[in-house]
Amino acid sequence: MAAVVAQSHHIFGLRTGVNNNLLFFDEHTVVFPCGNNCVRYDLDQACQSFIPGTERSQSMQAMAISANRRYLAVAEHKEKATITIYDLQHEQSRRRKVLTGGELPVREFVCMAFSPDSKYLIGQAGGPEWTLFYWVWEKHKIMATVKTTSTGPIHQVSFSPQDNMQICVSGNGLFKIFRYTEGALKQTNSVKMEQHNILSHAWMSKERIIAGTETGRLLVFESGDQRGSLSVTSKPSTQEPERKSEDTSSSPALLPRVTAISPYSKGFACSAGPGTVCLFEKTEEKDSYKKTREIKIPPDPCFNDPTQAEQQEISTLCISPSEETLAASTDRGQLYHITLSSVEMSRGEQAQFEFLSHSFHSGIITGLSICMRKPLIATCSLDHSVRIWNFETKQAPSKKHNISRSLIQIYSKLSLDWSPQVRSMAWSADDSRLVSCGMDGAVYEWNALSGKRESESVLKTCSYTGLTLSPDNKTIFAVGSDCTLKEIQDCQILREMASDDAAYTTIAMTHSGRALFTGTAFGTVRAIKYPLPLQKDWTEYQAHSAPITKMVVTFDDQFLLTVSEDGCLLIWKIIDKEGRALKREKEMSYAEEILITKSDLEEKNQFMLELKTRVDELKMENEYQLRLKDMNYNEKIRELTEEFIQQIESLKTENQVLKTEKEKQAVTHKEALSEVLKKHGKEQQDLESNNNQKLMLEYDKYHELQLKSQQMQESYEEKLQQLEDSKVHALEKLTQFYEAKIQEKVSALGQDETRQQLREFEETIKLTEEDGDRELQDIRIRYENKLRKEKETNNKHEDEIRVMKKKHDSLQRELKNKDLEIDKLKLEQNKLEGIIKSLEKDILVLKREVQKRDVTINDKEKNIYDLNSKNQELEKFKFVLDYKITELKKQIEPRENVIKEMKEQTQEMEGELAQFQQKNTQLELTIADLKLKLKATDKEMHKEMQRVRNVEALVRRIKTDLHNCVGFIQEPKKLKDSIRTLYERYVQQSDVVEIVGVDADIQRENSRQKEHLERNVASLKRKLSNDTNVHQAYKVKTMKENAFLIKEINDLRKELRLIRAQLHNYETQEVTASAGTVTALKFEEEAERIIQFQRVEIQRLRQDGTKKSQNYPHIYVNGLIQIIQIDFLIYKIHI
């Protein structure tokens, strides 16, 4: 047993080619195959648990989950086809049963399904037999088998959702319904489907099935017969009948394939070609279906061509138990999901899937590398993408990485002369040595600095596929095609460990040197302790479904990472036998720093400042919008309250009318109910009395007939006995009589005569016996006929008795039915009485409420009367005020003329402001262009500065190297060598040739660009100064105009105060009555409240105007105009 244990921790990927490879276990957990395992993935917590597959399983064909979501069935192929059933409610998902085809030779099961009660399982075997098996899986018993087709293939089998005995099978040119009866599966329909390749189907009800074809048609079957069809490419409102000409003429390559269908309560979801899923919902018209939405697979940025993701074919669709989530798997190993409620809400937008967890590789993973300072993994694949994974957080932190496609960028070149194909390489811990192996059976050790080969080990009979180095860099471990693990040291093979029948493909070693891990061509991982044991001792784990291509151990010996040709990345946790993590020699903490340039940081800070200013502006704008909305909403609330008050009044009247109608209906209902009860009771009594009389009469007849039959039977038996006795008595008499005669004759005659007489006598005796027998026979026949007639009459009577019994039973049943009806009517009566009582309670409650409302109405009517009286007094006072208003209006007219002139002046000023705004926008555009030019010059300047810094660094390095050369000034040979190396390091032949001609051109170009930039900067400065002068002059002008307007406002306020004083004098003179005084005071208080509100508004506008006057002078002018208008509005309100 190995000293360390590898435990499955997390896996990235999906196993394709498995029928029904995505299932919902519950609302937040899905089950899918990955590698040689089935994975239970929690969508909320993003955690996984594993269900390992069968050891050395060659392939996995299909999956199925039971209706109660408890059992999972997995079809695999090892030596023979098996179906393994797991209990998902068990913590470890323990294995319950393993089903096989029994004595029949089955190579694979292509699809399966559980019955609605989860007790039965059907499995479709593959070709050439294509046998359908029907199991009671808990008893491991095959109930029936049937051959479904001879050509194949079969794509799906399923149970009816409401019947364990009804099964549907669909495939290429095949659609059959089977029923389990009398211990066999019998076909119940006969539909010819030669022209359709049915890829999927789903039960919508007990009799209806929807089937999807290769040509984009949805066929509707009722009771096994085709009733219509739909198209996934259009939006039909009703089902149209099948048109064979369309299907035969349309090309399958151009039409979308319906590869998956999943039903739910509103309808069903189905695939509609590459990257598309359609939702169909029921319509009210003849139970037809209508396409309502399309859901697309979004582009995947991880691919070179993101649109490749949209070309994926949907393999499986499944819906969560609460019908909240729709999940899908594709033929390229991707998992997607979407919330159906969001699809319904986003009616105007194109709905798109999201990744269920991450985007996975869709091809063979060929490379694997790990970061030392961060918990990151890099993988590359034949799908032309490089992906980064975090093995601690189990996330994919970044997206697109492969941007060069077929371009190779060389950062540092070191040529190692090796012609055969290199399969694996490994670096030493200090990066000074590189070890490689290849298909020619050679293992080479290279010096990474000089590029020289230091050692080699060649074995022509083995093609090496993987190698690794020991922690001390002295030992090489290599694996290859000869199914052995080799330990190589100093160019010699020290040990070889055979792997039995499994070929090793890759190898990795822990950094502590305690264990080796090898990957096999079967996709398994083996853990071998080190030093290598003498015996074959290892632990094997089920991992992938294809050969493992690469594996690596993290630098802290906590995780083992493996990748395979199945496109999956599997993370293993390395622990000891007790389940503890391996001890680390030194603690490693991953780096949290990130690299960023100073320019990026400055841009980020500048962007943050811009966003802050934008947020402040949005806050101010939102506050203003909120105030406007509050005003609008208050007005709406007032209107709604008035409208609702009117509705309440109308509803009160309607309620009153309904109450009266209800009372009338209650009275009529009581009367009708009492009449019905009386009538029903009378009918019941009549029926009971009639039935009792009939029963008594029939019972009397039956009793009489029974007595008659007994008497007749006794009389006939007595007669027969008498006849029998008379016959015996007559025979005795005859014998005695003839015996006496014989004695007499014998004594009288001689012997001859006696003989003659005896003969005659015997003849006479025979004749008499025959006569007696004939008479007896006639008597017997006569009495038998009489007896038969009596029996017939007796049978007739018995039949009549049976009929009467049946009538009696039927009458008793009728009585029972009537009793049940009576009970039902009594229950209904009780219910109605309860309803009547509840309604009476409601009536009492409503009456109380009506009384309360009447009291409130009386109070309101009193208030209305008081208000009417006050209103009359106010009208009197209004007449007086109207006269005053007419006089004051005469004084207002000249002031209104002045206001009109000022408005015209302000409009002219607004026009000037619009012109200035246009000029400002033009200036802003020119400034933006100049800023862009300035930014470009800044970038060029930064590049030049960076180039200068690089040159300065180069000069510093040259200076240090020169300083080092000066140390050899007394040793000419070393000085010469150092100068030569210095020359080779810093001078290249191309630079020597071109440097003379290039320097002059560079200087000229540099000076020319410098002069051009200086001229541009000078012209920009001049334009900026001119713009600032114009803006300053405009600002001074607007300030003067504002001062003039403020002065006019102050004059108008003085006049307003004088008018208020005059108005107050008029009021004091005219008001004499006490009531009039009170109302005048109330009116004045209302006017003062409005004036106070308007003053607050004026103060707010002034504050806003002073804040915005510097940057927005036109807003300030508009604010002053509003203040003028508000002052005059106050004036009018006060009047």
UniProtKB/TrEMBL annotation:
Coiled coil feature spans: 601-849, 885-947, 1003-1104
Pfam families, sorted: WD40
Listed Polar residues bias regions: 227-239
Repeat found in the keyword field: yes
UniProt keyword annotations, A-Z: Coiled coil, Repeat, WD repeat
InterPro entries listed in its UniProt record: CFA-57 (IPR052993), WD40/YVTN_repeat-like_dom_sf (IPR015943), WD40_repeat_CS (IPR019775), WD40_repeat_dom_sf (IPR036322), WD40_rpt (IPR001680)
PROSITE patterns named in the record: WD_REPEATS_1 (PS00678), WD_REPEATS_2 (PS50082)
Entry annotated with the keyword Repeat: yes
Protein name, entry field: Cilia and flagella associated protein 57
Native source species: Astyanax mexicanus (Blind cave fish)
